[in-house]
């Protein structure tokens, strides 16, 4: 597992850890039931507080990405298809918002965008 902390980022460190682990789980880099580094080990490797690492793990567990077995550690949870669907829907909405922001500068209407999507969809089949 590879995690990089950017101290210049305005994003809290626990959130950077959370996001990177979540993305590795969703992307398949971390597989179901794979053991994660212990909270202490990860904190030591990243040179951060154990409390910060624990917060990231707690949020990952709360959101269903990992589970913890007392005395054994934390592991990647089975992929929750509904959770993954919601995550992908949020990404799609973000892309649509960007398209809607750019469309007026190109003179594109909602009908133009719908036609473009229809054509792209047909090409992909």
Strand content: 5-15%
Tertiary shape? elongated
Backbone structural class? mainly alpha
Q: Give the neighbour order of strands across the main sheet.
A: 1-2
Low-confidence parts, pLDDT < 50 over ≥5 residues?
A: none
Average pLDDT metric: 92
Report the count of strand segments. Answer: 2
Order of helices and strands: HHHEEHH
Number of helices: 5
List keywords for this structure.
125 residues, mainly alpha, two-stranded antiparallel sheet, 5 helices, 60% helix, elongated
Task: Kindly describe this structure.
- By secondary structure, the chain is mainly alpha-helical.
- Strand 1 and strand 2 form a beta hairpin.
- A two-stranded antiparallel ribbon has the order 1-2.
What order do the helices and strands come in, and which of them pair?
Layout: H1 13-26, H2 39-46, H3 50-62, E1 66-69, E2 73-76, H4 81-106, H5 110-123
Antiparallel strand pairs: 1-2
